[in-house]
């Protein structure tokens, strides 16, 4: 248990999300309703991201190391990779495929948070 | 003149319904388009230029709102007036609401005819080539679009390996030939057209118009984001890819290369992925606090996925040949 009292952080977010979908969105005003549903969806994204703990960071760390970017913070290594792709260092077919596999895995992880119902079929 | 109500608070502009009454008898129902203070991407036209493009399109018989008066400033913000055309523009409603079932049957042909008419506008005679962006001599429209997308991505200042990979692939696979340059709408899709129960009423949102490759417009409605959830109907959530391409070919009299369309669809996904990141920046920078704009930052992963999927599919069909 956290030092903090119930509701937990997850329960607080869920309570706000339900307030948005059940009360705020129950308006005749089309735009207000639309924005309430967007706000509820944004909260659901935040809830899913919190729920994944450090799994995404660990997977990205391993994948960046595999591509040869092992030193430094994840953001700096991601920038190094992005710059290397742009300058042509990943043009060779095997390198390109390795970077493509990395990119796809990371995008799939982002989608699991932003839109878990997204159709991932090839 | 009376401003009645806000029709749309677009991310880059707003549109107001206005009523202009003459002599207490005659009244004009108009829309006022006005700047919101920022730009969506690096190719956004000024209101005065957008007014000129709509005027040229309207004069050429494109179903566009008739422009009125001259471009001006309203409360210090650039604005112009045009005819208020009745109809629905909300994408999700147009692709699912039973009220538009009949319209959806007619739309592929109507949209194809409207798009072919846009591409037939004599932009030189209308003086548009001096107003809107066009590729420099010797440059392809695709290379201009890629370069602009790189600049836009850099302005966001985030590392996006998936987008870098897709852009690099686009640079290295640029098609050898392009269609002859035409006026290009730049954002031609469901969501930017007004439709009533009988079908198309008017093409809106001309702020990304330029001189370029007409196939950019032909491809844009195929980008998955513009299917509004009806993903199996690959053209705008209303019809199949082939029905759309054939309707355009019939209306324009010009054959469309499917391979180039597949390439341009990847480019389209990258452009909208970067566009969504830029829209989120409008919120993050404090320029335009908005839950809608904020949410677009996390939408970008969907277009990244589509771009990567498109590259794999493109290469798979290449190796079969």
Largest interface: A-B, 35 and 28 residues
SSE-based structural type of chain A: mainly alpha
Number of helices of chain A: 5
Mean pLDDT of chain A: 94
Mind summarizing the main beta sheet of chain B?
A: 5 strands, antiparallel
Low-confidence stretches of chain A: none
The side-by-side strand order for the widest beta sheet of chain B comes to 1-2-3-5-4
End-to-end gap of chain B: 64 Å
Short description:
The complex is a heterodimer of chains A (122) and B (321). Chain A is an all-alpha fold and 122 residues long. Chain A has helices spanning 9-24, 30-51, 55-66, 74-86, 93-114.
Write structural notes for this entry.
The complex is a heterodimer of chains A (122) and B (321). Chain A has helices spanning 9-24, 30-51, 55-66, 74-86, 93-114. With 122 residues, chain A is an all-alpha fold. The mean pLDDT of chain A is 94. Chain B has 321 residues and is an alpha+beta fold. Chain B has helices at 47-59, 91-96, 101-120, 141-156, 161-172, 214-219, 241-252, 258-284, 291-320; strands spanning 2-9, 13-22, 26-35, 67-74, 77-83, 182-184, 193-196, 199-203, 210-212. Chain B has a 5-stranded antiparallel beta sheet with strand order 1-2-3-5-4, covered by helices on one side. Chain B has a two-stranded antiparallel sheet with strand order 6-9. In chain B, helix 5 crosses helix 9 and helix 8 runs antiparallel to helix 9. Chain B is globular. Chain A binds chain B through residues 31, 35, 38-39, 41-42, 45, 75, 78-79, 81-82, 85-86, 88, 90-91, 96, 99-100, 102-104, 106-108, 110-111, 113-115, 118-120, 122, and chain B through 9, 150, 159-162, 164-165, 167-169, 172, 231, 291-292, 294-295, 298-299, 301-302, 304-305, 308-309, 311-313.
């Amino acid at each position: 248990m956290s030092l903090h009292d119930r509701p937990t952080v997850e329960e607080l977010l869920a309570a706000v999300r339900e307030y948005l979908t059940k009360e705020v969105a129950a308006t005749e005003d089309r735009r207000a309703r639309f924005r309430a549903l967007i706000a509820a969806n944004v909260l659901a994204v935040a809830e899913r991201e919190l729920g994944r703990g450090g799994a995404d960071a660990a997977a990205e760390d391993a994948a960046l190391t595999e591509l040869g970017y092992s030193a430094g913070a994840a953001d700096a290594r991601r920038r190094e990779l992005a710059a290397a792709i742009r300058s042509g260092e990943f043009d060779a077919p095997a390198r390109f495929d390795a970077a493509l596999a990395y990119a796809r895995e990371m995008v799939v992880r982002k989608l699991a948070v932003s839109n878990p119902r997204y159709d991932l079929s090839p | 003149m009376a401003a009645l109500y806000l029709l749309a608070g677009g991310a880059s502009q707003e549109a107001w319904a206005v009523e202009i009454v003459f002599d207490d008898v005659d009244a004009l129902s108009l829309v006022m388009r006005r700047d919101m203070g920022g730009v969506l991407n690096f190719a956004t036209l000024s209101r005065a230029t957008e007014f000129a493009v709509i005027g040229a399109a309207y004069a050429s018989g494109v179903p566009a709102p008739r422009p009125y008066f001259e471009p001006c400033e309203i409360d210090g913000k650039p604005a112009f007036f045009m005819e208020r055309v009745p109809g629905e523009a909300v994408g999700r409603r147009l692709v699912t609401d039973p009220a538009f079932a009949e319209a959806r049957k007619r739309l592929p042909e109507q949209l194809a005819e409207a798009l072919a008419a846009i591409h037939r506008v004599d932009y030189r005679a209308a003086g548009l080539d001096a107003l809107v962006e066009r590729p420099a001599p010797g440059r392809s429209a695709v290379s201009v679009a890629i370069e602009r997308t790189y600049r836009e991505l850099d302005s966001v200042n985030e590392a996006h390996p998936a987008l870098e990979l897709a852009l690099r692939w686009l640079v290295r696979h640029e098609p050898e030939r392009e269609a002859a340059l035409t006026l290009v709408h730049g954002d031609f899709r469901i969501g930017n057209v007004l439709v009533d129960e009988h079908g198309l009423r008017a093409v809106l949102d001309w702020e990304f118009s330029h001189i370029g490759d007409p196939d950019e417009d032909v491809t844009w409605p195929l980008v998955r984001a513009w299917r509004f959830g009806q993903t199996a109907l690959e053209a705008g959530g209303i019809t199949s890819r082939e029905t759309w391409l054939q309707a355009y070919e019939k209306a324009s009299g010009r054959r469309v290369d499917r391979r180039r369309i597949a390439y341009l669809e990847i480019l389209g996904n990258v452009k909208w992925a970067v566009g969504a990141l830029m829209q989120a920046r409008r919120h993050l920078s404090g320029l335009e606090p908005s839950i809608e704009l904020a949410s677009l930052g996390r939408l970008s992963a969907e277009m990244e996925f589509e771009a990567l999927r498109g590259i794999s599919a493109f290469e798979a069909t290449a190796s079969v040949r």
